[in-house]
Amino acid sequence: MPDPARPGPAPTAAAPAGSLQAALDAVPPNAGAPGGRAPSPRRDPRQLRRLLAYARPYRHLFVLGLLATLVSSGLNLFFPLLFGRLVDASFLRVGSADTGPLDRTVLFLLGIFALSSLFGAAQSYLLARVGAGVVADLRGALFGHLLSLSPRFFGEHRTGDLTSRLTADVGTVQAVTSTALAQLAAQTVSLVGAVLLLVSTSPRLSLLTLAVIPLVIGTAVTIGRQIRVVSRQVQDAVAGASASAEEAISGVRVVQSFTAERAEAARYGAGVQASFRAALLRARWQALMGGVMSFLTFGALALVLWFGGRQVMAGDLTPGKLVTFLIYALQVGGTVAGLTGIFNQFQEALGASGRIFELLDERSDLPEPARPAPLTRAQGRVTFEHVTFGYGAEKEEAAPALQDVNVDVPAGQIVALVGPSGAGKTTLVGLIPRFWDVTGGTLRVDGQDVRAYALRDLRAQVGLVPQETLLFSGSVRDNILYGRPGAAPAEVEAAARAANAHEFISAFPQGYDTVVGERGVKLSGGQRQRVAIARAILKDPRILILDEATSALDNESEALVQAALDRLMQGRTTFVIAHRLSTIQGAHRILVMDAGRIVQDGTHAELMARGGLYRDLYELQFRAQEQAARA
Question: Where in the cell is it found (predicted)?
Answer without folding.
Answer: Cell membrane
